[in-house]
């Protein structure tokens, strides 16, 4: 290879002439993101197209299996340098010669916007097209909000941009987003054939800006109104979905050029918003959380056969999650009746999918074919992983693990789904503590994406690596946690729930607490959540903890008074709220307020008013302070791990990044000052975390600890 050839081979954008066609290949691993060198290469290709009289058309493809994965994340947060994608798009669209994009793999974000500026588009099987900017608090800012509706119509464009979902080649063809599907999987080959065909037919350039799918009629206006209303209900606090609707409205109202100016303005508004920073933090943290010390040292063992012990709420959900990941599952229960109920729980999930038309009966049968069930431990002998989800009782867990130790093959990973119990102690009951780990799922286990991987003292690096690989297979967001009461999530929850209980006893109504948290961006307040999951669960935990509770600790009995009446929430028709006639949304209950009043009197408390802001400050300060403790003790590796747990397991508003990111955005000094103020009334509860104190003293933030293991 000559030097010139080798330079060309490594150029991020390569040009090759095939007869009258300039084949432009973007080659910028890993996903051909539109970084500066790619943009420069594309601008050079546009020059060549205009200037070279022997060229009649341009075909753009991506090398290495993808078209273009999107913007270059390495440029995030830095000043952007020209040429910009939007300018390249304008040049290609305005070219007097034919421009065609042939899509293979991902054409996402700016990648799809680039393809939209071509005159014709082809996608091969396996292509994934989408505009996921909304998920990062952004909107397509290189003409996507204008070209997409003009190409596929207002309603379909709103759907793609507001959900950020990816679509395949077939759906793209049906929507008119691509003009043809190329067979055989080779985009360059299929694309060249297509371009030659278009040239033979003397096809003229067809700028998307002039495409006619935006009609401005009643249907378009209706689609805009519906989208606006849906966003108002679903995400009233989010900026970018609202601005996406505004931008599409501009496509109906304004000329293309005016609407492009508008798009630029609202795009910048998104870039400047703290929401974008929060969403990007959440996005990167999920990936970062899988970087754990054991991942490099350990080797993941293959998992195909999974045993689940206990087919209750969690066990059944875990079995479904594993079945959905194409694994074989054996469910074990303590007796035939419980086993039948467990299997039925699993079958019901699929029956529901079939009833809703989201699965075919054949599809369901194929999945259930991979499920076996037994009451005999011997049935778990060939399992690569066994997950225990029996009652939360140490004696029962011990007995189960001793059986597992007896029957499981060497090297099988033995996991417990315990919420609070000491996994070191469980591991110690086996002859193979190196293979015992916690896999803490969240209910419903087949829906919630969070999985805490709880690592006991003696667990091997292989065991941890296997657990993370398993989480990936289940498409879960995995976070490493150390052993303590409640691990990361439930431990922190128990502290800020106490802060909420104290506020209720001191004068805030339960409904004010929920309202304050919804206004912060939670989909539900903590008491609504308690009603949804069942007040009996927390009550049972409190009763269990009663014996070991420090008698000096302030204990609010209001929740117990409610539970004692059998008011467990939605399932019993009342809890903190009243659910009349099976209603899913509860109404404030005057009798609950009377119970609260009575309890205040009994505790000798004169109620005082709480403003929503104070409710938030106390609730979040308690959460952040315990989050700092959890990091300080090494239960969480980094603050970002706490953020991921709360965004994915506890409804913390994703656009705020997570509690630790939020704390940084407020300034740790102000959080510490709040805690010190609250400590004056209850020094036992409000004890500043040593880590928080240290960071404030050194003028650092939580983010400075996130990079330690990056
Ligand atoms: P559950 O009461 O719904 O189910 C427990 C199941 O285990 C029952 O079906 C029971 O028959 C079975 N079982 C009991 N002893 C057994 C034995 N010796 N051998 C085989 N099966 C046995 O309980 P749930 O809610 O599913 O909880 C299970 C575990 O998951 C507990 O450790 C709990 O702390 C934990 N967990 C619960 C969450 C929740 O939201 N419910 C969330 C995360 C963890």
Overview of the molecule:
The structure is a single chain. By secondary structure, the chain is α/β, with parallel strands linked by helices. Among the domains are: 3-272, 2-enoyl-CoA Hydratase, Chain A, domain 1 (Alpha-Beta Complex); 305-447 and 464-469, Rossmann fold. It is built from 31 helices and 18 strands. The chain has an 8-stranded mixed β-sheet with strand order 11-10-9-12-13-14-15-16, with helices on both faces. Strands 1-2-3-4-6-8 form a 6-stranded mixed β-sheet, with helices on both faces. A hairpin with an 8-residue loop joins β14 and β15. α3 runs parallel beside α4 and α20 runs antiparallel to α26 (612-632). The longest helix has 21 residues, at 612-632. It is globular. Residues 1-7 have low confidence and may be disordered. The structure holds 1,4-dihydronicotinamide adenine dinucleotide (NAI).
What are the main properties of this structure?
alpha/beta, eight-stranded mixed sheet, binds 1,4-dihydronicotinamide adenine dinucleotide, disordered N terminus, 2-enoyl-CoA Hydratase, Chain A, domain 1, 710 residues, Rossmann fold, globular
